[in-house]
Amino acid sequence: MFAASRLRSLSSRLALNSLKPLVVKTAVPALSSRVTHIRQYATKDKQVSYTVDKFPGYVRNENYKELTEQDVDHFRTILGNNGLLYGNEDDLFPFNTDWMHKFRGKSQLVLKPKTTQQVSDIMKYCNDQKLAVVPQGGNTGLVGGSVPVFDEVVLSLQGMNKIRGFDNVSGILTADAGCVLEVLDNWLGEKGYMMPLDLGAKGSCHIGGNIATNAGGLRLLRYGSLHGTVLGLEVVLPDGTILDNMSTLRKDNTGYDLKQLFIGSEGTIGVITGVSILTPHRSKAVNVALLGLNSFEDVQKAFKQSRIELSEILSAFEFWDTNALQMFKKHATPKDVMEKEYPFYVLIETSGSNKDHDDEKLNTYLENMMVDGVAEDGVVAQDETQIRGLWSLREGFTEALGKEPAVYKYDISMPVPKLYECVEDMRQHLRDGGVFGQEDSPVTDVVAYGHVGDGNLHLNIAASRLESRVSALIEPYLFEWVANHQGSISAEHGLGVAKNEFLGYSKSPVMIKMMKTMKNMLDPNAIMNPYKYLPSSP
Amino acid sequence: MFAASRLRSLSSRLALNSLKPLVVKTAVPALSSRVTHIRQYATKDKQVSYTVDKFPGYVRNENYKELTEQDVDHFRTILGNNGLLYGNEDDLFPFNTDWMHKFRGKSQLVLKPKTTQQVSDIMKYCNDQKLAVVPQGGNTGLVGGSVPVFDEVVLSLQGMNKIRGFDNVSGILTADAGCVLEVLDNWLGEKGYMMPLDLGAKGSCHIGGNIATNAGGLRLLRYGSLHGTVLGLEVVLPDGTILDNMSTLRKDNTGYDLKQLFIGSEGTIGVITGVSILTPHRSKAVNVALLGLNSFEDVQKAFKQSRIELSEILSAFEFWDTNALQMFKKHATPKDVMEKEYPFYVLIETSGSNKDHDDEKLNTYLENMMVDGVAEDGVVAQDETQIRGLWSLREGFTEALGKEPAVYKYDISMPVPKLYECVEDMRQHLRDGGVFGQEDSPVTDVVAYGHVGDGNLHLNIAASRLESRVSALIEPYLFEWVANHQGSISAEHGLGVAKNEFLGYSKSPVMIKMMKTMKNMLDPNAIMNPYKYLPSSP
């Protein structure tokens, strides 16, 4: 039960203002909060189309060598017999396929180095031989960036999962790139620290992959982007050179900050093998509240006021619409958290060093939201289980959508006031296009959730089947809409194979040209993660 | 007077523990807290040696064209007659000379564009003609990075000082690069926001220069580095191309984050003309406390405990030694803040949204520090004037040292436990070398202060005169010491002409090679800020 003394006291105070008390029911049971679980059934279903069949137009670059037995033998000399997977379709399947089963490559070889030197030896050989390579972390990405398109060799960082060191005074962690985010977070927890980022896939994703994709996640609002928290990287360049930039200093102004180039480079210019990252103290007090609201206007009001009243203790401000809740309910049977349903929900998390102070700040804020008519209803989690329950609702949307026959997924950012206008506009556009709103329409729902604090919207268009007339209605329409509102076509998921051809909607020709120059300089043979990231046209 | 009810109540509680009450006297009067004042007398004294005479070994690169009247005429067509300074030694002096009067160039021309297009036109011409260029912001740097060495053209950003826009929901500011940091901070103050960085030179330094040098300053501990807070840049490349990356989004994962390259590039690969930056809410409650301590061991204990108890409200943790205090007193006559003097001092600032909560956290922390014997004495500022008084002490060291006949200035970072060992080691080393500790020794004092929270030490060796045997004792000895302790030879001041040849102590040959490749790619004619930043040897 959520009901507890603190909430009752809040309720009674609210009652004085002739408002109904906060109605409180039971916690939301976890749907199955981690991608780990999803990946288990991913391996059972082999009926995934190849990317090149699903999205025609890809042509294998014949500059790349085709893998030979001699190549495999050479890799055996580097890694031993157990350090690679070769030829067996079943073994290769989870490395060739993304967890959403949207993309599938045709690689015959997965390499699993355990040391930076092995990665260097592999890359040197691949560069000399012109073998194309796809670096792969936890393979939890959403844009097809971590799986091959054709027969590229997969370089899995799974085997590089050692924590290298931790400075207990400064909170600086050094680790192999293949460490799982949640493992690091739990390890740090015992020392009173935490990872500065958190995302739904944390049970599977690697810290190296997080950095290669510049993962944002749930707490960017509080702890900032990886460009600020990553202090050093060890990177193997395409020619095998080891770039040792594993600084453990908060301040170091000696030359161009080269490591920044690799943050968000999606494995196209180097393989991240080691990480140095600044970790914050784990907060002694964490509170999570859920509000029900009538409009996105109210969501914005609640956000603006939270930045003033909760300020330094605000650690997350997430929203979703009722469509997201219905999608969750379709694939799981949560008990209701509130008596009624509302068009919008926000999840607010605070993290601070003094429980009494934080409770007081949060309760005052919630009271103000109710008295001012911004929120219609609200609950506050009373213990760790209830906190997890509320978070599992927010984190469950991706998985619920994954159970739909087809989903068009978008991850866009723009000024906060425009966020939901984009969703409503898309619904109308699909209705006008005749693919949504009728009984036999291919589009079954348009679902929205995201990080209000970061102006980041996850827009999901669920469909009974993939249809070209639906795709044609969405793209480039959505990208044009985003560009017209100074937004980004990929806020945090990255480009991969899904967005690379649309880069021009978010970056100028001058920027794209400079990116290509950078790529050519660092990877002149273009062996790293080909067919992705940058547009193929000149 | 510092005495106030809150302090008295703390004192009485401490008295219960048989500790002497916190002794409180009057506020420290400001020495003259801003670099602006220093620069006023800088122009009165023309007896500054040229860099090339003081530091022999520089040879003018004859690939650069010498300025002609035709060139000046061409710049007049771009900027008009009032947009440049030409030929007059007095007018040129403040642009040729750094404010510490350590470096002096021989430029005959200062250009003052007012628009990005003018900067582009200037750079295109200079690149075509192979005229070397030094971009200059507020010229408050400490490593000679912003003044010419020979006859390079100075490109001053003074005239580009417009605020472009501000988003009141997200706190994102866009501005010209030539805006003065303090002007921006005051402007934001009226809107309830603040700049995420602060430094002693804020009355003169430009935001563009801050970003070009990756300025750290006093509040990095709280708001993080510019690599995290800068969201977008507009940069004119050496060939005149305008790189428009003025994103106003917190999240944008579309391609390499090119703007990061320019943060800390010290004007060697482009001219920053526009800035988009995330600004935090100005805290409703700010407290500043000063503690007197007996050892650097105690300073570390106080720091570690502050991260636990003050956590999310901690916004600065600065330290200085008694030598720094004596240096301040030598050039100003502050009233004593505490009854006695101590070997070490720490200045602690908290910033939060609830004054009562913050007071309680800070008082509990201070009480613990006194009861545990970590601190010997302490005061808490009671109002804005007293807060400024305490800060002016911390910010006055640079200016006080500037009044010494000669100062060897170092800005290094390393793991916190090693910070003061470095100072003590240097004192002993100079004594052993026979240049310190005797009546006629050239070195008069070794003064230390810095940002504990960032592992950043400002080490200053004051001397009665510059002597080569002193320099020879300090360098490369200090840089070797820093390198042996995994530190950086330049934490926040940058490389400029002062540190570039020592880069190898902080960066590997592979890193330096890649930096040079980057420089050659972006500035093939090497016209930007030559003789600096990267080592001249291959």
UniProtKB/TrEMBL annotation, chains A, B:
Q: Does the keyword 4Fe-4S feature in the UniProt annotation?
A: no
The protein's enzyme class: oxidoreductase
* Catalysed transformations (reactions): (R)-lactate + 2 Fe(III)-[cytochrome c] = 2 Fe(II)-[cytochrome c] + pyruvate + 2 H(+); (R)-malate + A = oxaloacetate + AH2
Question: For this protein, what is the EC number?
Answer: 1.1.99.39
Annotated FAD-binding PCMH-type domain ranges read 103-282
Q: Where in the cell is it found?
A: Mitochondrion
**Principal location:** mitochondrion
Instruction: Enumerate the cofactors the protein uses.
Output: FAD
InterPro entries, sorted = FAD-bd_oxidored_4_C (IPR004113), FAD-bd_PCMH (IPR016166), FAD-bd_PCMH-like_sf (IPR036318), FAD-bd_PCMH_sub1 (IPR016167), FAD-bd_PCMH_sub2 (IPR016169), FAD-linked_Oxase-like_C (IPR016164), FAD-oxidored/transferase_4 (IPR051264), Oxid_FAD_bind_N (IPR006094)
Q: Which GO terms describe its cellular component?
A: mitochondrion
Write out the transmembrane intervals. none
Q: What does this protein do?
A: Catalyzes the oxidation of D-2-hydroxyglutarate (D-2-HG) to alpha-ketoglutarate. Also catalyzes the oxidation of other D-2-hydroxyacids, such as D-malate (D-MAL) and D-lactate (D-LAC). Exhibits high activities towards D-2-HG and D-MAL but a very weak activity towards D-LAC.
**Family designation:** Belongs to the FAD-binding oxidoreductase/transferase type 4 family.
| Name of the protein | D-2-hydroxyglutarate dehydrogenase, mitochondrial
